[in-house]
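Hi there,

I know you've been waiting on this one. I reran it after we fixed the sequence typo, so this is the corrected version. Both the input and the resulting structure follow.
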Amino acid sequence: MYGTERVISGTIIAGPELEPLEGYICIKNGVIREIGEEHTSSTNIIAPCFVNAHTHLGDSVCKDPSLGNCSGFRISKDLDALVKPPDGLKHRILRETSYRELVKSMKRTLLDMIETGTCAFADFREGGPVGVSALNDALQGLELESLILGRPLAPEKPLQVVLSEVKRVLLHSSGLGMSGANDMNSELLREIAGFTKKQKKLFAIHAGEKKRDDIEKALSLEPDFLVHLTKANKKDLKTVADAGIPVVVCPRSNFTTGVGMAPVAEMLEAGIPVAAGTDNVMLNSVNMFAEMEFLSKLFSLSDRQVFKICTLNGYSVMGLQSRGLIEKGNKAKLMILNGNSNNLSGIKDPISGIVRRARPSDIISVLHS
């Protein structure tokens, strides 16, 4: 694309309100130079790419634990047994996995992201500095924007030892992504959060996934964003909204682990910025079409709200507010869908069509500038 001009015609899902318009986009050197309205016979649907705002890509080393083929481990409905550090299922598997295999497995998942229309993601990267390094290596040569949010490998050690490890994690990451406020000593966690902010890095944390008793603790750390809030009540949501803290929800993951569904409609009503992520790769693919359809069919949300949650809102949560929009002057981060595929042929509303029924096979191409 660079050095050349490219014109794409079709129905364009443009601007902050995602208003469909018939016309063309002119792209040069990876930047949208012009958007024009005109009649076209093209059946293309040109839409913003997805943002997968919460992943655990290290889980790529074991994608089907329920089959019992990953070192004999089997999936459990007990969330702590699945993911709680240091001895949850995923952490035991990660300890047995070589660096080379970890990088290879994550790279395959990153390629799957690209193929399924995602151009940016935020990952909670376990494994300390080595874990962060592995994801950076997996990203080599790929056109994906990322937030890598690492964490210390052994937070039970003395404060200065932990802070030294956090400092090394932060050297090559966007910040920290912690498992939960109940998973480590509160004072130590507060020191870690404060240190991270002094380094001008992001601090994010899971909260209210299995129980709500860690929400207040998480909020006291003044995180840049929270993940889950499955068990949040109205008072919690008001506090989160008043603090201006975004929330990333992971409905498919929460359904799979049996912890319930996040009150997404209530979050939006309270004025909380909401984005979505696919969470643990061991439980779900990174296919955001599937996440979007799940949100659409299980929650009382409009199709436009759902599409925003899975695209533009993710950029906002990740601090990339100026990107993602299909607007003149923005980088071209687009997925071009075949509106005449056997699946999409005959749809009347392109946003509803994408949200409720589109799938990766409907993608013609993905542009990552």
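Quick highlight: Residues 50-317 form a domain with the TIM Barrel fold (CATH 3.20.20.140).

Best,
R. S.
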